[in-house]
Amino acid sequence: MLTPEEIESIVSQGEGYNAELKVRLPSKIKEVTEEVCAFANAAGGILLIGVDDNNVIKGAEINNQKRSALQNSLREITPALNCNFYDVSVKGKTVWVIEVPTGTQKPYTVSGAIYVCQGPNTQKITSVEGMRDFFQQSDRIYFDEGPCHQFDSSKDLDWMEFATFREDAGITSGIPDEQVINNLKLTLPDGSFKNGTVLFFGKSPESIFEKAVIRCLLFDGLTKTSILDDKVFGGPLMQQYRQTIQWIKGKLDVRYQIEGSGPRKEVWEIPEIVFKEAIINALSHRDYYDKGGRTTVEVFEDRVEISNPGGLVSAIKPSEFGFKSHSRNPLIFGLFERIDMVEQVGSGISRIRESLKSQGLADPEFKIEGIFTVLLKRQSKSSEKSSEKSSEKVPLKWETYKTLIKEKAPFKVNKSQWEILKMIAGNNQVTIQEMAEKAEISTRAVEKNLEKLKTGKLLDRKGSDISGYWELLPD
To answer: How far apart are the first and last CA of the chain?
Structure first.
């Protein structure tokens, strides 16, 4: 049984993929049974009756007749599901609790229909094809719910990433980490951490799941003949997302608008929200059972392609694509939802299309079979003209800058410093690690040279260490 403190903790975190709050028992009791069935077909969950939409405990009365009716309704779930149903007094108010385990005999049905959780909603699967697919895949559809016995939370869990998640999710700091882990159902009854937990909060999930990374590639021209940049980002999923977004930003055209006296606004050639939706979609819905494929971001002169293993899930018909959602990984999807990285279920594709349209860009193209791919077209450019422009403009700008440096530098610029300045001239978001690798010196040496260049007013850093950029001075 849950304690009053545990109930308050769940209420403070609000509804999610494993928590449902109701101010009273609905007149159609079967609605509760359907939600319980959906929890059983996913990761289990807690349904609290006596809590309003604002996460305020109001208390609720359920007389013996209604209680009996609810228990009889729950017995309609097949196979039989053992749920705990009881009341708890929380600060003088009665809250009714239904504890739903993750079912061991999936799929569970009510009146012959399968119910599944889709974000905060319950979806009914009625078609013969949908049911057949669910039966066939129910033992593998939720990779993120499986146990990861190799994971040792004492040394492998990234507690800083977990703390950031708590803050972003608005989880009260007074709640112990162990209780949050329990409330979010990040572990199994035997205490082992779930695969999804490892992917979301592990320091190095790729050490266990080798392909659980994002590979980012920049190509010269329109084909994959020549690779200009190749990066692989691992670590917790949100870290992969942040690093990928920064990498993409460094490869696209980004201009700045100054409106009034406010801060300048970044305008990407393809809206940043498009990449947010596409990358979070890839991380949430990719088939992690596929050990031969990685999520990839490929940047060409005329397009960007974002791909992930696993096509459209079988529960969604091609005609429903973009309007309905069914995650392969409900735990991961639910965690992204907690921190507002995903919004209304099934609306991400629409936001991509609308964002592109608002900027006058071409509609995206989707491949939904085999490997799911979204293709985003860049501003049309002639390959030949772009190449000529690149070969003329960059050297000219660099040569001009070199002349200015030689005239105004208060000290003699050494070889490493020249290499660093040239890298920045080509990419003002180049990282210290990249500088060290290309200049063949240590990161500490790079930092010392950067500091000297800044002190000599030959270089400046704008913005934060993560999202900022380098600016050459004088320019």
So the answer is: 67
